[in-house]
């Protein structure tokens, strides 16, 4: 499966299939949440939240690819990511793009 954030793949003629998406809502445990809140007092990278967002993006991408594979897609083009806070310490991440077949 080819994944790109452009609306084309060089050298390929594409047949558009459909919008595909994958999403997840993730949070850190209360212990990590408390330690990260102390980190905001002194500044710096919030590594636990960075890891959480990386895991969430990977899972959302995996789910998007699974949806594309079910359609028989060869690739997903024009991939985008969005995120939003659901509550303190929890975020939704969505990955979406256009599933395509090669002609």
TrEMBL record:
InterPro entries documented for this protein: UPF0145_dom_sf, UPF0145_YbjQ-like
The organism's place on the tree of life at top rank: Bacteria
Gene3D superfamilies the record matches: Hypothetical protein apc22750. Chain B
Pfam family, one: YbjQ_1
Family, per entry: Belongs to the UPF0145 family.
Alphabetized HAMAP family for the sequence: UPF0145
Protein name (record): UPF0145 protein H8705_09380
Organism: Youxingia wuxianensis
């Amino acid at each position: 499966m080819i994944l790109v954030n452009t609306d084309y793949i060089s050298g390929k003629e594409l047949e558009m299939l459909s919008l595909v998406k994958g999403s997840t809502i993730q949070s850190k445990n209360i212990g990590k949440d408390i330690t990260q809140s102390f980190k905001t007092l002194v500044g710096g990278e919030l590594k636990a939240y960075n890891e959480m967002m990386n895991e969430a993006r990977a899972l959302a991408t995996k789910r998007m690819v699974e949806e594309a594979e079910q359609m028989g897609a060869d690739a997903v083009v024009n991939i985008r990511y969005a995120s939003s806070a659901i509550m303190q310490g929890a975020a939704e991440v969505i990955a979406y793009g256009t599933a395509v077949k090669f002609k």
